[in-house]
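Figure 2 data, in text form.
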Amino acid sequence: MSAVPRFEKPGRAEKPSGRFRRMLDRLSTSQEDLECEELREDSHASGCTRISECSDRQIVKVTGTLRTVTLRPRAGVPALEAELFDGTAPLDVVWLGRRSIVGIEPGRKLIASGRVAMSHGRRVLFNPKYELRPLGKE
């Protein structure tokens, strides 16, 4: 017997080729998966780094949708925390000394840039530069 690798036939692992196959694939995929795919495509189209590819101490520009926004004091100082999700991984965005920021609310899309830190195993951006995405661009 020889140790020649077998090549797999192109099949379902690749993207569907026909219109009907794409429609069936879209209908059989969950809403959450479709939203994640849309967020990944948006991240790629805007030229931003995917959150899953961000490493500690790296300066990045990321985009995504805010899933949660909470007011949580850190060392006695108010801090507005939001979870940004781009379809690949979550990122905590923290504005120190702020109780609220107009436009920062769940469901809002934004672009944030700054240096990523790791805190308790999660990626965090402290006091990032940010740009709110227009509401009509969905």
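Caption note: The longest helix spans residues 31-45.
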